[in-house]
Design a protein that fits this description.
4 helices; binds threonine; alpha+beta; elongated; homodimer
Chain lengths: ~170, ~170
């Protein structure tokens, strides 16, 4: 299957917030995001997989850095209200995205991305995929390094990175 | 911000696999996906947020149902090799996606999706977002109900669901 990777983008304007041990029952995600939505806080990535504790789930999401403090306070208030666990966060992140067509099967492209970052000892803090892209959240300080080695790995033009596109 | 939701899609051809308590150090994601990629198993969603146990992360991903058994065996073997925790899975899932333009801010659309599903007592097992879509993995048995109530919530034409689009 022909996957054509067309570019690498990065975004350093976001911060990650994680709410752990959310009761895994209907309605929790709705209650958590209602105040965030009402406050018109933009949310970019929302990630929830299955957790390791039965009946609980961890949810991570990213918000613009300027909204970080407000969103943390809301999430902490909701964590109490929902009977969830700790809220932890990191404002110093970068989202690196590899954009491609025909990504129907991410495993090949994803594996190459993970190996490329791992060869530079860059730790992957969040992963999210869609048909056209694989996004990894890493420590902000590795942004340039990550973009450069991914450009090389996918043999993209040495053009300057596509810039801070979401 | 004008968000135009253009459709709802669903996919019941996938199964979810989760590997818990993966050591949160560089290289783990690369090692996990290498055998899956070598076996040419298509992976659709890959989701990793931050976990509740410091130094560990849970990773969830979806594979085509026919590859479920093979992928589980690989993941269990890798879990041992990487010193990760339990592998759990569910072959009876459906991925429901709400497609829209201008989703730059997911919080409004996401919140409405979560509330619509919660009103039907449908539990959300995975969440993944991209610029053009919000995807929720739910129990397969709620597919039709979820698609119908989301069509209503976003006032989409009563056309038949867009079909099993990834
Ligand atoms: C954890 C959270 O997503 C919950 N399962 C819900 O449906 O709201
Ligand atoms: C958990 C896993 O993603 C790890 N952080 C890695 O970089 O491979």
């Amino acid at each position: 299957e022909q996957v054509v990777v067309s570019g690498i983008t990065y975004n350093r304007n976001e911060a990650r917030i994680t709410i752990t041990n959310v009761p895994d029952v209907p309605g929790m995600a709705a209650k958590l995001f209602r105040p965030i939505s009402d406050a018109k806080i933009n949310v970019d990535l929302i990630v929830q997989g299955s957790g390791s504790i039965p009946g609980r789930a961890d949810m991570s999401f990213t918000v613009p850095k300027p909204d970080y403090d407000k969103a943390i306070r809301m999430t902490e208030r909701m964590a109490e209200e929902l009977g969830a666990g700790k809220v932890h966060s990191n404002p110093n992140i970068a989202k690196i995205s590899v954009i491609g067509l025909g990504m129907r099967s991410h495993s090949g492209v994803a594996c190459k991305i993970f190996e490329t970052l791992s060869n530079q000892n860059i730790n992957i803090k969040m992963i999210s995929t869609s048909e056209i892209k694989v996004s990894c959240v890493i420590d902000e300080k590795y942004t340039e390094l990550a973009v450069r080695v991914l450009h090389d790995a996918f043999e993209l033009e040495k053009s300057p990175p596509l810039g801070t596109v979401k």
